[in-house]
Structure prediction request, 530 residues.
Amino acid sequence: MSELLKVTDLAVSYGSVPAVDGVSLTIEPGELRVILGANGAGKTTIIKTLLGLLRPRAGQIRLDGQTDLLRLRPHEIHQLGIAWVPEGRQLWNTLKVVDNLRLGGFAEPDKALVDRRMAAMFERFPRLRERQDQIAGSLSGGEQQMVAIARALISAPRLLLMDEPSLGLAPKVVRDVFGLVREINKMGIAILMVEQNARQALGVANWAYLLETGHIVESGSADEIGRKASVQAVFLGGHA
Amino acid sequence: MELFLQQLANGLVIGSTYSVVAIGFALAFTVLRVINFAHPDIFMVGMFAGLAVTAQWPAFGLLVAMVAGAAGAGAVGFVLERTVIAPLRGRDVLMTLIGTLGVAIVLQNAMALVVGPDPVAYPALLPRRFIDIGPVALTVRQVANFAICLLLLGLVSLYVRGTSYGRATRAIAERPDVAAAFGIHVARICQITILLASMMAGVAAVSVGMLYGSASAFVGLLYGLKAFICMLVAGNRYFEGVMVVGLAIGIIEALVTGYLSSSLRDAAAFFVLIGVLYFRPNGLFGSYNA
Prediction:
């Protein structure tokens, strides 16, 4: 099967401090894979490197088995169909909700298409339609996460990178977000998610990687990983 | 009351020029993370570009002079961005600060070599006639300066709020990484931003040259200082905030001149700066990364 994204032996450092070392992973079209890891394990570093925002020290990142993402700048990578739901939402808080969404389609030359996609988002998230003229920073955490997800979907990506979408949200909202993650994946969009909330993430993912201090220590189907004693001990609150 | 209204009007006239220059500073600082010390001297180049055209072809009026001012200042701004700011982007803020300061010194002294160190007369592009607005009397040039600057400020506001590139500009100001990852070509927007800021400054410079009837290679210092203060007082979160503060500083200066002493005029802006930063260190309207 042809991989959508293939990461080989990725190593990223901040100055002389290694954040990620020897990370290899793949994702196939339409899949939903999750990288589980604690704070500081290197999850966000991987995501930012895939987006071209960080330059790795070593390794390869290829899209569709051919395009070398390391040669491209962030805006060019975006145009290949990779979108981002950043950690902690990172909306443009001083801009209106509607402008946040519109900027999600900045690179799409067909503005009528962007308008149609925005209308579809408002259809799916009526709350955002009501609040479209509010400053994004004034929304609740859950609503902001909806904006962050909708903003990423406006570009109709093939691959969605989600960085801890459950972070800082109320438990009920977390369930909604994971329901939405599943729904987006059913639309055929491949998702690579990094999470600390292992129980919820393993519930929606079909494959999981376990990241510890910059290394992938386990990988397997979500069921398999969920049954591992080490994962239960660290992430699921069970007894080792 | 009449003095008050008259000084209010005078203050708005010169404050509008401060606002235009301040917006140029603010755009460079918020979007490119650069303290562009060359901006006031780009303004000065614009002033002389307008002067050169009208001196050469006296029949041409204000409009052509402003186009020339925009072109001259825009060209210098564009080259500055390509040769100094872009190569130093991502390095320490001090690097671009020193780089632009160097360019500022070169621009001032190069212009002084060409036109001499003393102020030179600026052509009278508009008649020296008074217009009465109620109890207030303003010259045609004052009214024109205010109208021109207000138009520039309105266009900036329209650009950053109503256009796709303008929204992208604000997106970069708030979160450059997220903007890049959402398909915004950050380097190109940065180029456009400096070009715009410079062209605006060039137009405003021609207008204020005409207003006071003189131009000097060192005229940038005064406007640059005031404009820089405006940006610090307002904070960099809202461009409109910088515009409002520019007008306010102009008014305060005019009132100080009218009621206290003209020798205190240039100190007024600094008192405002110290007072505001004491109580609101991130500026009146707040700053990013604060």
